[in-house]
Amino acid sequence: MKSFKNILVYVDTFASHPHTAFHKAIEIAARNHGAVTLMDVVEDVPWFMNAISHKAQDILDTTEGMRRDKLEELAEEARNLDLPVKTLLVHGKPFEEITKAVLRNDHDLVMKTANAGSNSTNLCGQTGIRLVRKCPCPVWIVTPAAPEKFSHVAVAIDPAPHDMSRNSMSKKLMESAISITCPDTGVLTIVHAWTLYAESMFASRMTPQELREHIETVERQVMEMVEAFLIPFQDFLPEGHVELVRGEPGLAVPEYVNQSNTDLLIIGTTGRSGLPHFFSGHIAEMVLNEIQCSVLVIKPDDFVCPIHI
């Protein structure tokens, strides 16, 4: 099963919210005998600031010193637990510098505390969305109010008969979900969204009873397919662990997650664009914007990072 061992934590040291991603990273690293790098990014002073104020560089230097001190303060907290911790402070755009750090140092997970706010439009933020699109390793965005132990983890899978790409991605998702879920206190739910092909056509040609029976038949077939895919994982799963949600994934998955008190949603990405596998285009961001819990986005083996070092 997947174990994250080389974790990069993006810490916005000037943020007002708790650094929950840092504390979750420490927990994971301790469990997996891994290492943590704490990183912050100082964005360059806009050119017009230098033009109107000779103090702009002094302000930047002071800001950099404060950020470095805060990183070291957090690092010392981790070192007191005998964990190997490094700090990294760079200049540039956060999502670009984080991605470059991943490429240089072969990090296997990036963690970031979500922005404080009442919904995920604020929670993910621009940096979070861009990391999901471009970063080559998994990205875990942790809400400020995330519990110390996740009591309910949901993983959205999309297997299909004879589709190696979808099945491979779903396998990676399952491995991550099982490794993260605490066997003593956590519940793992496998979520699969499905739709009825040509439903409006069937509805116009069937009686209501016939349509209901057709829907039940298709749903039974979908469940059999999902359960067959899950056979290699059955020793790690409790009874009643599959939740079929009917509807477009971009709507059905967030609705289930928000109504089921899910602490963490795990989803996958595929292709060169980095968009979630069965969430294409704007629907991917719809999911991230609608959910109210932490989210872990897993990347496929053939993910192509558009940023180079």
Q: What's a quick, concise take on this entry?
A:
By secondary structure, this protein is α/β, with parallel strands linked by helices.
Which key terms come to mind for this protein?
309 residues; alpha/beta; Rossmann fold; 2 domains; eleven-stranded mixed beta sheet; 11 strands; 20% strand; elongated
Descriptive overview:
It is a single chain. With 309 residues, the chain is an alpha/beta fold. The chain has two domains: 146 residues, Rossmann fold (3-Layer(aba) Sandwich), CATH 3.40.50.620; 163 residues, Rossmann fold, CATH 3.40.50.12370. Helices cover 44% and strands 20% of the residues. The chain is built from ten helices and eleven strands. Strands 1, 2, 3, 4, 5, 6, 7, 8, 9, 10 and 11 form an eleven-stranded mixed sheet that branches. Strand 9 and strand 10 form a beta hairpin. Helix 5 packs across helix 10 and helix 9 runs parallel beside helix 10. It is elongated and about 75 Å long. About 2% of the residues have low confidence.
Mean pLDDT: 86
Number of domains: 2
- As a whole number of angstroms, the C-alpha radius of gyration is 21 Å
> Uncertain segments of ≥5 residues (pLDDT<50)?
272-277
Q: Kindly state the percentage of residues in helix.
A: 40-55%
The CATH topology assignment of the largest domain is Rossmann fold
Counting H and I runs of at least 4 residues, what is the number of helices? Answer: 10
**Amino- and carboxy-terminal Cα gap:** 30 Å
Q: Which CATH class of the largest domain? A: Alpha Beta
CATH architecture of the largest domain: 3-Layer(aba) Sandwich
Strand content: 15-25%
Summing up helix and strand content along with how strands pair, one would put the structural category as alpha/beta
Largest sheet, if any? 11 strands, mixed
- SSE sequence, one letter per element: EHEHHEHEHEEHEHHEHEEHE
Count of β-strands:
11
- Gross morphology is elongated
